[in-house]
Amino acid sequence: MKHKLLNKVLAAYLIFLLVSFTLVLWIVPRLLRNYLFELSEDANYRGYLRGQAVAIQNTCYLLIAVVFLVSLFPVLIFYLKLYRPMNRISEAAAHYMEGASHPQFYYNNDDELGRLTAALKYLADAADSSTEYQRKFISNVSHDFRSPLTSIKGYVEAMLDGTIPPELQERYLRIVLSETERLNKLTEGLLLLNSFDDNGVYLEMTEFDISDIIRQTIDTFEGICQKKNLVIQTAFPPKPAIVFADMGRIQQVIYNLLDNAIKFSYPGKEILISVTIRKQLVYVSVKDFGEGIPKENLDKIWDRFYKTDISRGRDKKGTGLGLSIVKEIILAHHQNINVISTVGAGTEFVFTLSRKA
After folding, report:
1. Which range marks the domain in which residue 60 is found?
2. How confident is the model at residue 165 (pLDDT cuts 50, 70, 90)?
3. DSSP per residue over 214-235, as a string?
């Protein structure tokens, strides 16, 4: 590695010394002679003064040498305290850029270089996390696309080669249609999340009663609730809870949270949806009494495609994007969403919306 900074500093230091010594060697003798010779007009006394001038001049040169040696200390301090740590940091960063493992920084002092090192460590950690996230993301996308595509391909080939007789083809065509809808939902979810990443989502802000939207959304789950013997209970305020938000997006939030609650609820249980007005905010709660989420997984449920045996649900057909979409929509409204969960007791999601008085 080229030591450009060190070379520049040393060159500047040498030029400074060279110019300084040249000026001193040229000026000191002349100043001494001119000053001392003006003290007397006696020729003999001038001879004595000339000898004294040489002694003073030699003393000055000795002092210059001492100053030169002392001036080496700042250079040494610069090299040990500034240049060498910077060089090590630069080498570690260069090795990391060349594809080496996580960079090893050994400078931990609480100064500007220490803060620079901490910033580089943070960037390296973020880059590693981003790379790992992208790897998992691509792996999950590939897996979730491959599964329905394999089913569709298998059933279509079986129909074409006669393995599935004509009288059974309608049944398997319905399966193919279901898998196609699953792929479509997955694609739409990815496009929606990508639009949030690019800040490309336009919110159509309107005033509406959140209680009415919740009732409409509950109606869409009537069939599946009957199959699982689930009851959805509601608790709404006596007066309309008017919010200012994107009605379509908020309905999507409620749908995803309800779908999630139904998926994880035990048969015969109930799901509670409540709306509470507090000052300028409206709080919406969706609570189930199902499997619950382990404490160590609570921070991960918002990650795209994050799935465990519990969080996938029993049907194994979730896209793994529902909660990610929910959080992005709420954040786009500059509001908050929180989750409280206990394994075996259930889960409660609570989000806020801006109230329109």
Report:
1. 4-101
2. confident
3. HHHHHHTTHHHHHHHT-EEEEE
